[in-house]
Amino acid sequence: MIGFKRAAWLVVTVAAVVFFSGTASAQQHKWKVQGLYGSNTVIHKEFEKFAQRVQEATRNMVQIEALPVGTIVSAAEAADAVRSGLLDGAVGTMAYQGGKEPAAAFWDMTAGYDNPLHLIMWYRQGGGSEVMNKIAAKWDAVFLGPVILGLESIPSKKPIRSIADFKGVKMRAPDGIPAEIFNKLGASVSVMPGTEVYTALDTGKIEATDWGTLSVNDEAGYNRIAPYAIYPGIHSMNSVDFLIRKSRWTALSNEQRAAITAAVEEWSLATWMSQELEDRKAFAKRNPETLVTWGEKEKGELRTIARGVWETWSTKSPLAKEIYDSQVAFLKSLGKL
Asked: Does residue 16 surpass a pLDDT of 70?
């Protein structure tokens, strides 16, 4: 039988362990996460709803400050800001990283997908999330999932009904695979940030642009100066990737990580649905003559040209080859290649 002093010491020790363990598990995590869209867009508002869901699901233990594009750094610098600790996370950064890691240029497999569900299937069933995490690791980050936006529509000053109609068109496109594909189609491509697109269209520096979905483009006012659009889109199944600095992720409890993972899936689905509804509203407001729909033959021809560019990019790094092989195998299983 232990003595009174010894028993008292044990009680105090156990109480201290419980107290400090409870304090550690109750640590509050505050993240600064920068998005890819402006504060007034439907996409950013869904991002804010996601942040609120995470706060509620974790009982205020994880708080995400949802920052609009450009708040801390430019969109192109967001991944580097995550690695340096300037940001805790970023939404929609891989599209800008192809020059640093060629595999990042395959974030949406330009011209590969024409159904949002198929892209989600690749992430969940085709190994997409695993290879994206390998890419994210280059920035000391964890890939928590895609947020699906839907098919991008190309606003233009004249109708583009086929590959031949791209010839000579002055067009904005992001650097990397998209720019190379449009060059192959005969367009005169300018690489510029999204913040310069409206002015470039307005002044005639460009006549068409690779940007967002129909509603996103109309919301930005592109339809007022470039009245035509390819709808449904043909070139990009737009999505944004959600990256969190690895040290921030590993600091969470298993329960917190599970809650956030579930919230990301809900966020992706909610954003896809809201964008689909907004696109349909934009479609209803449009003069049908301003919307150009491509057939399966034309889309197949585009995919064939795009595949040549994909193959070239797949030779640029081992990870590029891995993500290329993964998506090509999946697209073949769908009968798209």
From this structure: no
DSSP classification of residue 289: G
Burial (0-12, 13-18, 19+ Cβ within 10 Å), 64 = buried
Cβ pair 268, 76 in contact under 8 A: no
What architecture is domain 155-235+286-333?
3-Layer(aba) Sandwich (3.40)
pLDDT cut 90: percent of the chain above it? 74
Asked whether residue 104 carries a pLDDT value surpassing 60, the answer given is: yes
Beta carbons of 283 and 231 less than 8 angstroms apart: yes
Q: Do 149 and 272 contact (CB within 8 A), yes or no?
A: yes
Type and span of the H or E element at 11: helix 4-25
What's the distance, CA 167 to chain centroid? 29
Distance CA 237, CA 248 (A): 29
Assign 3 a pLDDT band (cuts: 50, 70, 90): low
CATH fold for domain 28-148+239-285: D-Maltodextrin-Binding Protein; domain 2 (3.40.190)
Q: What is the pTM of this model?
A: 0.85
Listed by start position, the domains of the chain span 28-148+239-285, 155-235+286-333
Between CA 190 and CA 210 the distance in angstroms is 11
For the residues 48-76, what does the mean pLDDT come to?
96
Q: Rounded CA gap, 97 and 145, in Å? A: 17
Q: How many CB atoms lie within 10 A of CB 166?
A: 22
Structure tokens at 190: 């300018």
Structure token pair of residue 205: 């520096």
Q: Quote the pLDDT of residue 8.
A: 43
Residues contacting 312, CB < 8 A, separation 6+: 180
Beta bridge partners of 243: 90, 143
For the segment 32-36, the average pLDDT, to the nearest whole number, is 96
